Amino acid sequence: MQINFAVCDIHESLLLQGKKVTITFRDRTTEEQEDAFPCQDPHCHRYYSPWRGYFRAEVGEFPDFGVPSKKPQCRHNSEPVYMFLMRKDGVLAWACPECTVTQRFTL
Nearest-CA neighbor of 4 among 37, 34, 35? Predict the structure, then answer.
């Protein structure tokens, strides 16, 4: 599936921005970067990455990646690829960015 159909998992009526941004975050010993798609709401701090799923990140804070095992995912080459949320036939569904697999969205 194409990520350009992805919606924010908080603001389900808003598509994610079509262009990735690079988020730099630090802990006490390392600096890391993550390329992710942000929500279109400028006040929303939600992002999506196929390698992290949906997560919250604010400037100056370490991102809250949540619990990876609880996030909808598809496996490719034995690695998890986290699914994004989209509307399919007017209903929310999880979709894999690497293939055509979808899962029904449930709360």
Answer: 37
Sign of CA dihedral 38, 94, 99, 1: negative
- What are the φ and ψ backbone dihedral angles of 79, each rounded to 5 degrees? -110, 145
Question: Who contacts 53 (Cβ-Cβ below 8 Å, separation ≥6)?
Answer: 65, 66, 68, 71, 72, 73, 82, 83
Whole-number pLDDT of residue 81: 95
pTM, to two decimals = 0.90
| φ and ψ at residue 12, rounded to 5 degrees | -65, -10
Task: List the chain domain ranges.
Answer: 3-104
Distances (CA, A) of 23 to 15, 18, 27, 37, 61: 19, 16, 13, 10, 11
Q: How far apart are CA 101 and CA 107, in angstroms?
A: 19
